Amino acid sequence: MRAFLILAPAALLAACNGGGSADDGTEISIKGGTGSEFSAGMGKDGRVSIDAPGFKAAINLPKVKLDAGDFDINGVGLPAGSTIESMNIDGNEKGNGAAGESVNVRFTSPTGTAGVREWFQGKLAAEGFKLTAEGDNLSGTTDEGKPFRLTTRSVGNGRSESTLAIGG
């Protein structure tokens, strides 16, 4: 957990090399510790907030827009042309000491819902994920036995918005 607390701000700040664009940036939030010991976040406008024991800060940075090339899970990235709208990483331990780590990524894709599902189904099954298709959505477990869920919805013009949730 200590490594998580040290690496989380570095991950947030490392994202800053993506630069800004005329579009909204990607919203990123990171939490860690037991309960709410640590939190950091970057808004779509580039404003970063850090709240840790003994340290609080608000920093203005250029907004960041993450895309398909900035994310992968077990070597599997997002469909080409996808952009990440938000990423939430939670490393909090549950009250009973059990780990409650989770990652949620919301992204838009120039691919329709069926195309997104097929992309992940093929790639993740090859990585050892156990998956079940439910319409254009997927659920199952990772190669480490953590819960996995992909939900998709059409946003028109052959595009889709999806949420990838791992752990919990």
Automatic annotation (TrEMBL):
Keywords of this entry: Signal
Source organism phylogeny: Bacteria, Pseudomonadati, Pseudomonadota, Alphaproteobacteria, Sphingomonadales
Cleavable signal peptide: 1-22
Name of the molecule in the record: Lipoprotein
